Structures are given as structure tokens and as C-alpha cells.
Amino acid sequence: MLKRIIGQDTQGASPSNQQWLNVEALAQVEVTSEDAAHPIESGLLPGTESGWRAAQPGPQTVRLIFDRPLRIKRLHLEFHEDELERTQQFVLRWSPDGGRSYREIVRQQFNFSPSNTTSEREDFPVDLDGVTTLELNITPDISGGPARASLAQLRLA
Asked: Of 43, 58, 100, 127, which has the highest C-beta tally within 10 A?
């Protein structure tokens, strides 16, 4: 029996098989805060394991400002939390005009429960042309608790 799942792009679906953009060479990064032991580079560059972590609790922003407009076809995000039970929200948006206006890509909430769920991986096929700014807003605990935002990986293709 030949079987196909329609309406889904299965080519290159695995993040490990993807040819990722070199963010270090293509963008400047702005971040609201960072823990010295977990700088933003640890969440953006391949081969880094510790990920980024905010210096203090509360909502945080990670903004990539590209040196030239880019076409982005895939976004991969990973979040890890093995200490606190909480509900986290993130909003990912992009700008075609240097941050003067933004278009939302995704807004999502998920729960971390260290005894059961400690990671969240999201892979979004997109077709964004002329991206000058990509912004990730993280609310680490929507109840206003003591959690600090963290990002294990953000990859772009």
C-alpha cells in the first residue's frame, strides 16, 4: 500500500537535517537581560549546549536585527525547564521595515511540569520574505511567578 499524507511538507522536516542560517554573521542581537553563565549566544549558535537564560524573572525580549533583509523558510525553537512548574507564553513576530511595524507569526502557551514535561520543541515552516527584524517575546510564567525566561535554541533557515 502506498500512503501519502497530504497538506504537509515532509521534506527537510527534521531540524538536524536543515541548513541553518549563520545568525552570528547576519544579525545584531538585542536582549532585555542575560545571565552571565547563559549568554544569548548559547541559544543562537550551533554547538552550544547551555542555552540563554534571563538574569531576572518576568517578560523578556530577544530581537535579531538583520544586516540585510532575509528570506526565512523555517523557524525552530526549543525551551527547557526542569526546575519550576509553570505556564509559559511566547510570541514570535517579524518586521519588514526595521522594527517600525510587526507581523505576528505565532503566539503559544505551554506548561512545564518537571516531573513530566521539561521541554518544548516547535518547528514552523514559514515563507517570510524581506525580514529585517525577528522578535521573540517570552513570558516565563503567565501567573507572574519567579521563573526566568530561557531559550535552549532558536534556529533559522
From this structure: 43
Segment 55-59 mean pLDDT: 95
Identify the CA nearest to 134 among candidates 61, 57, 47, 79: 61
All residues at 6 or more sequence positions from 2 whose CB lies less than 8 Å from its CB, including other chains: none
Residue at 73: amino acid letter: K
CB within 8 Å of 53: residues ≥ 6 apart: 34, 35, 37, 38, 148, 149, 150
- Note the pLDDT of residue 46: 86
C-alpha torsion 147→156→120→53, nearest 10: -20
Give the HSE-up count for residue 80: Cα atoms under 13 Å, Cβ half-sphere.
10
pTM beyond 0.85: yes
CA distance linking residue 67 with residue 83, whole number of Å: 37
